[in-house]
Amino acid sequence: MSFGVKFEVPERLRWWVEARFGMFIHWGLYAIPARGEWVMFFERIPKSEYAKLARRFNPRRFDADEWVTLAKEAGMRYMVLTTRHHDGFCLWDSQVSDFTSVKATPAKRDFIAEYVEACRRAGMRIGFYYSLLDWRWPEYWDGPAKNPEGWARLRDYVHAQVRELMTNYGKIDILWYDGAWPYKAEDWQSERLNAMVRSLQPNIIINNRSGLPEDFETPEQHIRYHERPWESCMTIDESWWGYHAGDRHLKSTLEIVRLLVRCVAGNGNLLLNVGPRADGSIPEAYKRRLRAVGEWLKRNGESIYGAGAAPFRAAHLGHVTAKGNKVYVHVFYWPGKSEICIAGIKNRVTGARMLAADKTLPSEQREDRLFIKGLPKRPPDPIDTVIALELEGEPETTPPSFWTK
Ligand code: GLC
Q1: What is the pLDDT of residues 205-239, one digit of tens each?
Q2: What pLDDT band is residue 1 in, cutting at 50, 70 and 90?
Q3: pLDDT above 90 (res 400)
Q4: pLDDT of 285-333, one tens digit each?
Q5: Residue ranges of domains in the chain, CATH in brackets
Q6: Ligand 1, atom 8: closest residue by C-alpha
Q7: Whose C-alpha lies nearest to ligand 1, atom 4?
Q8: Which atom of ligand 1 is nearest to the CA of 129?
Q9: Is 61:51 a contact under the CB 8 Å cutoff?
């Protein structure tokens, strides 16, 4: 399969590339202090003191089905949950650590199991985030050069945990590593680790954060186009992944939709993060936005799912995505005139339609300039009005010609 910007996608990645939109969830003990998932590090909380948070972790409002339902309502097609973040706390019943939700908390629950089951019930694709680094290990701070034996123990622990995650929960769709830094793939023996992962989960997709490129790139908190599969991960609020009571500047529905469109217009995915509260609940303000994104996707989903880059641009209006013989002009900046012009389409255009209003529009092609007519003064969808163009054949472009005339 290939899109406007040409790169081939291996078969196992096909569903993921078509899905385009996923939910990232950062959830763990750090939700209790509610100052983000790096609180242990930045406040230099001693290990023994941080461990006490576990005794207070009893998330009565945790309901995996609710999380999955919300993701569905938002139009998301996969989820990625932190199984263990840098603080070392495991949301599953790991046999190689006592610092787990099953052993160390009054909840005594395997939240990963509950999450996996809820995803399966809903037909949601399942992703696991896993941090290689664990701040609680002095061996991590020493590093492999200073303490090779200690390092080998840490590495064995990491390999054992990944093996558990890849063995105990049936088919897993995505393994989303993090935290290899400042060490290298050789230090973690990532090649061996990922070979084990793939032998246990033959169709799994692995991100690029074990120090090896594997299946996809992961630009963080920004969008950057790559010539291979990529996914931008971004927080719904300003900067924190784990719940932060003070991080209150939420992205609006409009911002989220436009981020998603910009990703798809560059052949990428968007993994949008929410950090539930310590009790397992997701703040209402997040839910409202996510559901509104889902409403937009209900009307305009064909321009996102399975779509990718188009060979020509319309930056004066917004962005363009393409799928098969169609291109989708995402008008972010509604001109307020009855006519707009899109240039550089080589194909004959056989139809134009506004998705939001399901309204056909007259159009006229003069050489490499297309004029779409009969537009209302105000944008029918202020978030992003999508105009679908039907082309003869797969979209092709012509080089700019106006200065030769
Ligand atoms: C960073 C942060 C981390 C977050 C992740 C998400 O690596 O350390 O807190 O989980 O990015 O991409």
Answers
A1: 999 999 999 999 999 999 999 999 999 999 999 99
A2: very low
A3: no
A4: 999 999 999 999 999 999 999 999 999 999 999 999 999 999 999 999 9
A5: 11-303 (3.20.20.80), 310-404 (2.60.40.1180)
A6: 179
A7: 241
A8: 10
A9: no
Residue 57: pLDDT band by 50, 70, 90 thresholds?
Answer: very high
Say what the pLDDT of residue 405 is. Answer: 62
- The ligand 1 site (C-beta within 6 Å) comprises 26, 37-38, 178, 220, 233, 241
Query: What's the 124 CA to ligand 1 centre distance in angstroms?
Result: 23
Distance from residue 133's CA to the centre of ligand 1 (Å): 11
Residue in 24, 177, 178, 232 to alter for ligand 1 test, most ligand atoms within 8 A of Cβ: 178
